[in-house]
């Protein structure tokens, strides 16, 4: 099938913090998100979603954290489509969004603090192994500090 190589950039400082992640088409978005979070320093349990381009809240399609859709009141997404990221593979998302190389998706983590990242699809390897586990293969910059050290406060 295929593997995908995404360059994930921190929207606040995209030149200083990014990670290249390779992931197989048959891996879920939840698996991709787990590796992404660890790679950029976000390790807490919060709500999150992937969306189109760099649209974030205005995205017409959102791939949400497993269980969130069932727990959300109706109308949380204004007229768009919602998918469970634990049931949606990277390949399914790529087909649904008609992603080509250089296209972007957004990733928003923690609806309160709104950690914003976007991912550029750098490469589609049609000869790759579709069950390839998500892996960071290249990186730049130090992980973010999600919470300040004890005693330093906000």
UniProtKB/TrEMBL annotation:
One Pfam family in the UniProt entry: PRiA4_ORF3
UniProt-recorded name of the protein: Plasmid pRiA4b Orf3-like domain-containing protein
Renumbered residue ranges of the record's region Disordered: 128-154
InterPro entries: MM3350-like_sf, Plasmid_pRiA4b_Orf3-like
Keywords in alphabetical order: Plasmid
Residue stretches making up the Plasmid pRiA4b Orf3-like domain: 3-140
Organism, scientific name: Haloplanus rubicundus
Stored Gene3D superfamilies: MM3350-like
